[in-house]
Write a structure and sequence with these properties.
It is built from 15 helices and 22 strands. It has an 8-stranded parallel sheet, covered by helices on one side. A 5-stranded antiparallel sheet has the order 16-17-18-22-20. It is globular and about 75 Å long. The mean pLDDT is about 95. Bound molecules: alpha-D-glucopyranose. The site of alpha-D-glucopyranose has 9 residues, from loops.
């Protein structure tokens, strides 16, 4: 035992309940479905589950539009089923983290209904309203999902701000009543036994006074006035003092566009335990931004990880992730999903679990689920993709879906939202009904049951690697050092505690690679590898396509 907080030793598994397992045949995953698979989750060896939102919601953004923060959406089950799930996980020493969405609510939340119908009532100031010409939005800010961030509401006769969908009005954090209402909700779930929160889009809470226009050429127009805004830290500190203080919880803030230099303000002695930055997954944005793709070099990816690893060496702690419900599948993006699916998925796993920080694994990543094709805009469900494509069609930036299809197939959030692939039966065993989103056509081949039958499977590798890391203080806490930083095929780094060292060696290319690596000792022992490489000490190191190894040696 160490005196380190539990979440620094934890491996977290993210479940997107809608797409995980459906117990009642309505085509949408649910809480009972998660309970039914708790043994699968336990066998992975993870320490905590993060659930994407299950609160009552009209589901315009699949639950990231909350209509009641204290109720479970009937799509997913009841509060009793929630309690049962929490208890079932706790009985197995697995903690439960929920998503908390407080930058905005649903437009169907009672607060918004009251706010739009009774401007002078107690909720009149709960959202960001501006009066004015119904043809002229109050400023030029854009919604992350494309188009203006303002909608004119005929009922109130005023504009309201929504940094995301029109059904996701931004809460007015300047209003102390809003702050107390949210704080109450957050404390309420802790009393029910919850172990932490993943705070959705939480660096957007504070907007610049006067809501001035943003740079019209910015990647997200207006962002300099709402990302890490003037009162953000104050709001988060208040949350921390009133809700997190003295609890044994994990709080991780999702913070788009966060720079490493800014991160320390939020963690360490800051209000949160962890942040999710996006620098490594934003590397492939092209000159045209998010809806443009460029190839990335391995050296760039290593440089980003290296910067964050070094920045967190003495204070703070990293999150480690390649996937979540907003990101495409990592084996398609950073690996080779056709020729080397097993090898590249396990190589990526070795990076994820080999670096210093808290690893987050997204459902399906552990069986190497891949991106899919989206032949038409009608085959897309994600509000982000649909609205952005529509906005580009409306402005004439593109003339057809086909033009942008390769980008969509690379980037769309639907890639990670297809049903979890359990077996090769109807709808991959996800539902007995009609799934809400089409199953990836490769499910007869890629699924848990077929992984269980293989000699060497991605799933087995994940289980073995998680077990190895969870029991290895050097992999958890050892100091990180990058070797051969400029190499474009090999990712080599060490983790060291005193004289005990792990050397992590990964080939992220489809070719055999050889290097003379002085740091690799002759008697180094392979702890885990995705090829058969029991006696492969240095200094000459040869790695097959996407080969990955973790060595133990003394220094
Ligand atoms: C976060 C969520 C994303 C959601 C958005 C608005 O980025 O991860 O899924 O659409 O916030 O709540």
């Amino acid at each position: 035992m160490t005196d380190r907080p539990w979440w620094q030793e934890a491996v977290v598994y993210q479940i997107y309940p809608r797409s995980f397992n459906d117990s009642d045949g309505d085509g949408i995953g649910d809480l009972r479905g998660i309970i039914d698979q708790v043994e699968y989750i336990e066998a992975l060896g993870i320490d905590a589950v993060w659930l994407s939102p299950i609160y009552r919601s009209p589901q315009y953004d699949n639950g990231y539009d909350v209509a009641d923060y204290r109720a479970i959406d009937p799509l997913f089950g009841s509060m009793d089923t929630f309690d049962e799930l929490q208890e079932t996980l706790h009985d197995r020493d697995i903690r439960l983290i929920m998503d908390m969405v407080v930058n905005h609510s649903s437009s169907e939340h009672a607060w918004f209904e009251a706010s739009r119908t009774d401007p002078d009532g107690p909720f009149g100031d709960f959202y960001v309203w501006r009066e004015g010409d119904p043809d002229q939005p109050p400023n030029n800010w854009e919604s992350a999902f494309g188009g203006p961030a303002w909608t004119y509401d005929d009922i109130r006769g005023a504009w309201y701000l929504h940094l995301f969908d029109v059904h996701q009005p931004d809460l007015n954090w300047e209003n102390p009543e809003v702050r107390s209402a949210i704080i109450e909700v957050m404390g309420w779930w802790f009393e029910k036994g919850l172990d932490g929160y993943r705070m959705d889009a939480v660096n957007l809470l504070s907007k610049s006074e006067g809501l001035p226009d943003g740079d019209p050429n910015g990647e997200w127009v207006g962002q300099e006035h709402f990302i890490n805004g003037p009162r953000l830290l104050e709001f988060l500190r208040m949350m921390s003092d009133e809700v997190f203080e003295g609890t044994d919880t994990m709080i991780v803030g999702e913070m788009p566009q966060l720079d490493v230099a800014e991160a320390h303000a939020f963690i360490g002695d800051g209000p949160f335990d962890l942040v999710f930055p996006f620098e490594h997954v934003d590397l492939d944005f092209g000159p045209g931004g998010r809806w443009d793709v460029r190839p990335i070099e391995l050296s760039e990816l290593k440089a980003v990880f290296d910067k964050w690893q070094r920045a967190m060496a003495d204070s703070g702690w990293n999150t480690l992730f390649f996937e979540n419900h907003d990101q495409p599948r990592s084996v398609s993006r950073f690996g080779d999903a056709t020729r080397y699916r097993y090898e590249s998925a396990t190589a990526l796993a070795t990076i994820l679990l080999g670096l210093r920080g808290t690893p987050f694994i997204y459902q399906g990543q552990e069986i190497g689920m891949t991106n899919r094709t989206f032949p038409s805009l009608q085959s897309v469900h994600d509000v982000d993709t649909i609205r952005n494509v529509q906005a580009k069609l409306d402005t004439g930036e593109i003339s057809s879906y086909e033009e942008i299809r390769p980008v969509i197939e690379h980037r769309s959030r639907d890639n990670s939202r297809t049903p979890f692939q359990w077996d090769d039966s109807h709808a991959a065993g996800f539902t007995t009904g009609d799934p809400w989103i089409a199953v990836n056509p490769n499910y007869p081949e890629i699924n848990v049951a077929s992984e269980e039958e293989r000699d060497a499977s991605i799933l087995d590798y994940y289980r073995e690697l998680i077990a190895l890391r969870s029991a290895d203080q050097t992999l958890i806490d050892g100091q990180y050092e990058l070797l051969a930083p400029a190499h474009e095929a090999l990712y080599l780094f060490t983790r060291t505690t005193g004289t005990d060292q792990r050397l992590v060696a990964i080939n992220l290319s489809g070719e055999m690679e050889t290097i003379v690596l002085e740091q690799l000792q002759e008697d180094a022992e392979v702890l885990i590898g995705n090829y058969d490489a029991s006696a492969a000490g240095g200094p000459e190191l040869s790695l097959a396509p996407y080969e990955a190894r973790i060595y133990r040696q003394s220094v």
